[in-house]
Amino acid sequence: QQPVQSPQAVILREGEDAVINCSSSKALYSVHWYRQKHGEAPVFLMILLKGGEQKGHEKISASFNEKKQQSSLYLTASQLSYSGTYFCGTHTGNQFYFGTGTSLTVIP
Amino acid sequence: NAGVTQTPKFRILKIGQSMTLQCAQDMNHNYMYWYRQDPGMGLKLIYYSVGAGITDKGEVPNGYNVSRSTTEDFPLRLELAAPSQTSVYFCASSYFGGQDQPQHFGDGTRLSIL
Protein backbone atom coordinates (compact mmCIF):
# COMPACT_ATOMS: atom_id res chain seq x y z
CA GLN A 1 0.00 0.00 0.00
CA GLN A 2 2.89 2.34 0.76
CA PRO A 3 4.05 4.36 -2.25
CA VAL A 4 7.70 3.87 -3.17
CA GLN A 5 9.91 6.89 -3.74
CA SER A 6 13.17 7.25 -5.61
CA PRO A 7 15.87 8.18 -5.10
CA GLN A 8 16.19 7.46 -1.37
CA ALA A 9 18.65 10.29 -0.97
CA VAL A 10 20.16 13.05 -3.09
CA ILE A 11 22.78 15.73 -2.49
CA LEU A 12 22.69 18.90 -4.57
CA ARG A 13 24.67 22.09 -4.81
CA GLU A 14 22.74 25.34 -4.62
CA GLY A 15 21.18 26.16 -7.95
CA GLU A 16 20.99 22.58 -9.19
CA ASP A 17 17.76 20.79 -10.05
CA ALA A 18 16.29 17.60 -8.65
CA VAL A 19 13.47 15.20 -9.46
CA ILE A 20 11.80 12.98 -6.88
CA ASN A 21 9.61 10.13 -8.05
CA CYS A 22 6.67 8.43 -6.35
CA SER A 23 5.08 5.19 -7.55
CA SER A 24 2.01 3.39 -6.27
CA SER A 25 0.69 -0.12 -6.84
CA LYS A 26 -2.85 1.21 -6.39
CA ALA A 27 -4.91 3.40 -8.68
CA LEU A 28 -4.54 7.03 -7.69
CA TYR A 29 -7.05 9.82 -7.51
CA SER A 30 -4.61 12.29 -6.03
CA VAL A 31 -1.03 12.61 -4.82
CA HIS A 32 0.08 14.79 -1.94
CA TRP A 33 3.62 16.08 -1.40
CA TYR A 34 5.05 17.12 1.98
CA ARG A 35 8.46 18.26 3.18
CA GLN A 36 9.79 17.49 6.64
CA LYS A 37 12.82 19.19 8.11
CA HIS A 38 14.79 17.41 10.79
CA GLY A 39 12.98 17.43 14.13
CA GLU A 40 9.90 19.13 12.71
CA ALA A 41 6.46 18.16 11.48
CA PRO A 42 5.70 17.56 7.80
CA VAL A 43 4.59 20.64 5.90
CA PHE A 44 2.21 20.54 2.96
CA LEU A 45 3.66 21.42 -0.43
CA MET A 46 1.26 20.37 -3.13
CA ILE A 47 -1.66 18.20 -4.16
CA LEU A 48 -2.06 16.84 -7.65
CA LEU A 49 -5.48 15.67 -8.71
CA LYS A 50 -6.72 13.37 -11.41
CA GLY A 51 -7.37 15.50 -14.42
CA GLY A 52 -4.31 17.64 -13.91
CA GLU A 53 -5.41 20.16 -11.32
CA GLN A 54 -2.68 21.26 -8.93
CA LYS A 55 -2.91 22.95 -5.58
CA GLY A 56 0.07 24.23 -3.70
CA HIS A 57 3.49 25.70 -3.83
CA GLU A 58 4.46 28.30 -6.41
CA LYS A 59 8.17 27.51 -6.57
CA ILE A 60 7.87 23.75 -6.79
CA SER A 61 6.20 21.90 -9.61
CA ALA A 62 5.01 18.36 -10.04
CA SER A 63 3.45 16.00 -12.49
CA PHE A 64 0.93 13.20 -12.11
CA ASN A 65 0.65 10.30 -14.53
CA GLU A 66 -2.59 8.55 -13.58
CA LYS A 67 -2.13 5.65 -16.00
CA LYS A 68 1.32 4.82 -14.68
CA GLN A 69 0.24 5.57 -11.08
CA GLN A 70 3.26 7.81 -10.69
CA SER A 71 4.03 11.34 -9.63
CA SER A 72 7.22 13.38 -9.85
CA LEU A 73 8.24 16.45 -7.87
CA TYR A 74 10.52 18.95 -9.59
CA LEU A 75 12.74 21.25 -7.56
CA THR A 76 14.49 23.77 -9.74
CA ALA A 77 17.33 26.13 -8.84
CA SER A 78 17.55 24.54 -5.41
CA GLN A 79 18.13 26.68 -2.34
CA LEU A 80 19.58 25.72 1.03
CA SER A 81 16.07 25.93 2.46
CA TYR A 82 14.96 23.04 0.22
CA SER A 83 16.89 20.58 2.38
CA GLY A 84 14.73 18.04 4.16
CA THR A 85 12.90 14.78 3.60
CA TYR A 86 10.20 14.77 0.95
CA PHE A 87 7.22 12.46 1.22
CA CYS A 88 4.52 11.73 -1.24
CA GLY A 89 1.22 10.42 0.05
CA THR A 90 -1.92 8.86 -1.33
CA HIS A 91 -5.42 7.95 -0.16
CA THR A 92 -6.95 4.51 -0.33
CA GLY A 93 -10.49 5.18 0.79
CA ASN A 94 -10.17 7.23 3.96
CA GLN A 95 -6.76 5.83 4.82
CA PHE A 96 -3.66 7.81 3.94
CA TYR A 97 -0.31 6.25 3.12
CA PHE A 98 2.93 8.20 3.12
CA GLY A 99 5.70 7.20 0.76
CA THR A 100 9.09 5.84 1.74
CA GLY A 101 10.66 9.30 1.70
CA THR A 102 13.52 11.03 -0.13
CA SER A 103 16.22 12.83 1.80
CA LEU A 104 17.40 15.93 -0.05
CA THR A 105 20.46 17.87 1.06
CA VAL A 106 21.44 21.13 -0.58
CA ILE A 107 25.01 22.28 0.01
CA PRO A 108 26.58 25.67 -0.74
CA ASN B 1 -3.90 30.87 14.72
CA ALA B 2 -3.15 27.83 16.87
CA GLY B 3 -3.87 25.19 14.20
CA VAL B 4 -3.17 21.70 15.57
CA THR B 5 -1.89 21.55 19.15
CA GLN B 6 -0.32 18.44 20.64
CA THR B 7 0.55 17.85 24.28
CA PRO B 8 2.88 16.85 25.79
CA LYS B 9 5.87 17.57 23.54
CA PHE B 10 8.08 15.00 25.27
CA ARG B 11 7.38 12.09 27.58
CA ILE B 12 9.25 9.16 29.03
CA LEU B 13 7.19 6.15 30.13
CA LYS B 14 8.07 2.94 31.87
CA ILE B 15 7.08 -0.36 30.29
CA GLY B 16 3.51 -1.20 31.21
CA GLN B 17 2.43 2.35 32.00
CA SER B 18 -0.44 4.03 30.19
CA MET B 19 -0.86 7.55 28.92
CA THR B 20 -2.97 9.74 26.68
CA LEU B 21 -1.54 11.96 23.96
CA GLN B 22 -3.69 15.01 23.44
CA CYS B 23 -4.52 16.60 20.10
CA ALA B 24 -6.75 19.63 19.51
CA GLN B 25 -7.46 21.66 16.40
CA ASP B 26 -9.26 24.99 16.05
CA MET B 27 -9.85 24.97 12.29
CA ASN B 28 -13.21 23.18 12.42
CA HIS B 29 -11.73 20.30 10.43
CA ASN B 30 -13.79 17.14 10.16
CA TYR B 31 -10.98 14.68 9.58
CA MET B 32 -8.26 13.99 12.10
CA TYR B 33 -5.37 11.52 11.99
CA TRP B 34 -2.76 10.00 14.26
CA TYR B 35 0.58 8.93 12.81
CA ARG B 36 3.72 7.48 14.28
CA GLN B 37 7.18 8.03 12.86
CA ASP B 38 10.04 5.81 13.93
CA PRO B 39 13.60 7.18 13.66
CA GLY B 40 14.67 7.61 10.04
CA MET B 41 11.39 6.23 8.74
CA GLY B 42 8.20 7.48 7.18
CA LEU B 43 4.86 8.12 8.84
CA LYS B 44 2.41 5.31 9.50
CA LEU B 45 -1.30 5.89 10.12
CA ILE B 46 -2.49 4.61 13.50
CA TYR B 47 -6.11 5.77 13.63
CA TYR B 48 -8.25 8.33 11.92
CA SER B 49 -11.61 10.00 12.46
CA VAL B 50 -14.03 11.43 9.92
CA GLY B 51 -16.05 13.35 12.49
CA ALA B 52 -17.20 13.41 16.10
CA GLY B 53 -18.13 9.91 17.25
CA ILE B 54 -16.59 8.16 14.23
CA THR B 55 -13.15 6.56 14.30
CA ASP B 56 -11.43 3.80 12.38
CA LYS B 57 -8.19 1.86 12.35
CA GLY B 58 -5.26 2.78 10.20
CA GLU B 59 -2.26 0.72 9.22
CA VAL B 60 -0.74 0.17 12.69
CA PRO B 61 -3.51 0.35 15.34
CA ASN B 62 -2.38 -2.40 17.74
CA GLY B 63 -1.66 -1.12 21.25
CA TYR B 64 -3.59 2.13 20.79
CA ASN B 65 -7.10 3.44 21.24
CA VAL B 66 -8.79 6.68 20.25
CA SER B 67 -12.00 8.56 20.85
CA ARG B 68 -13.57 11.59 19.22
CA SER B 69 -16.26 13.13 21.37
CA THR B 70 -15.93 16.63 19.86
CA THR B 71 -14.85 18.04 16.50
CA GLU B 72 -11.86 19.73 18.13
CA ASP B 73 -10.25 16.91 20.15
CA PHE B 74 -8.80 13.56 19.14
CA PRO B 75 -6.83 11.93 21.99
CA LEU B 76 -4.67 8.83 21.49
CA ARG B 77 -4.46 6.36 24.34
CA LEU B 78 -1.55 3.98 24.90
CA GLU B 79 -2.35 1.06 27.17
CA LEU B 80 0.47 -1.07 28.59
CA ALA B 81 3.31 0.82 26.93
CA ALA B 82 5.98 -1.30 25.20
CA PRO B 83 9.47 -0.35 23.94
CA SER B 84 8.24 -0.86 20.36
CA GLN B 85 5.98 2.18 20.86
CA THR B 86 8.96 4.49 21.25
CA SER B 87 8.38 6.93 18.42
CA VAL B 88 7.35 10.44 17.45
CA TYR B 89 3.59 10.80 17.27
CA PHE B 90 1.98 13.34 14.96
CA CYS B 91 -1.62 14.43 14.90
CA ALA B 92 -3.03 15.98 11.73
CA SER B 93 -6.33 17.37 10.52
CA SER B 94 -7.92 18.18 7.20
CA TYR B 95 -11.08 19.84 5.98
CA PHE B 96 -13.67 17.22 5.00
CA GLY B 97 -10.83 14.73 4.48
CA GLY B 98 -11.29 14.73 0.76
CA GLN B 99 -8.49 13.60 -1.41
CA ASP B 100 -7.90 17.18 -2.49
CA GLN B 101 -7.46 18.56 1.03
CA PRO B 102 -4.04 19.10 2.62
CA GLN B 103 -3.30 17.79 6.10
CA HIS B 104 -2.15 20.20 8.80
CA PHE B 105 0.19 18.73 11.38
CA GLY B 106 0.87 19.39 15.02
CA ASP B 107 4.46 19.68 16.27
CA GLY B 108 4.52 16.08 17.50
CA THR B 109 4.97 14.23 20.77
CA ARG B 110 8.31 12.50 21.30
CA LEU B 111 7.68 9.40 23.38
CA SER B 112 10.26 7.05 24.86
CA ILE B 113 9.35 3.81 26.57
CA LEU B 114 12.05 2.47 28.89
List keywords for this structure.
heterodimer; A: 108 residues; mainly beta; 4-stranded antiparallel sheet; B: 114 residues; 7-stranded mixed sheet; 49% strand
Outline the structure in words.
- The complex is a heterodimer of chains A (108) and B (114).
- With 108 residues, chain A is mostly beta strands.
- Chain A is built from no helices and eleven strands.
- Chain A starts with a strand and ends with a strand.
- In chain A, 36% of the residues are buried.
- In chain B, a hairpin with a 5-residue loop joins strand 4 (31-37) and strand 5 (43-51).
- Chain B contains no helices and eleven strands.
- Classes of the chains: A mainly beta (108), B mainly beta (114).
- Chains A and B meet through strand 4, strand 5 and strand 10 of A and strand 4, strand 5 and strand 10 of B.
What is this structure's SSE topology?
The complex is a heterodimer of chains A (108) and B (114).
Chain A: E1 4-6, E2 9-13, E3 18-23, E4 30-36, E5 43-49, E6 54-56, E7 60-65, E8 70-75, E9 84-92, E10 95-98, E11 102-107
Parallel strand pairs in A: 2-11
Antiparallel strand pairs in A: 1-3, 3-8, 4-5, 4-9, 5-6, 7-8, 9-10, 9-11
Chain B: E1 4-7, E2 10-13, E3 19-25, E4 31-37, E5 43-51, E6 54-57, E7 64-66, E8 76-78, E9 87-94, E10 104-105, E11 109-113
Parallel strand pairs in B: 2-11
Antiparallel strand pairs in B: 1-3, 3-8, 4-5, 4-9, 5-6, 7-8, 9-10, 9-11
In short:
The complex is a heterodimer of chains A (108) and B (114). Chain A is mainly beta.
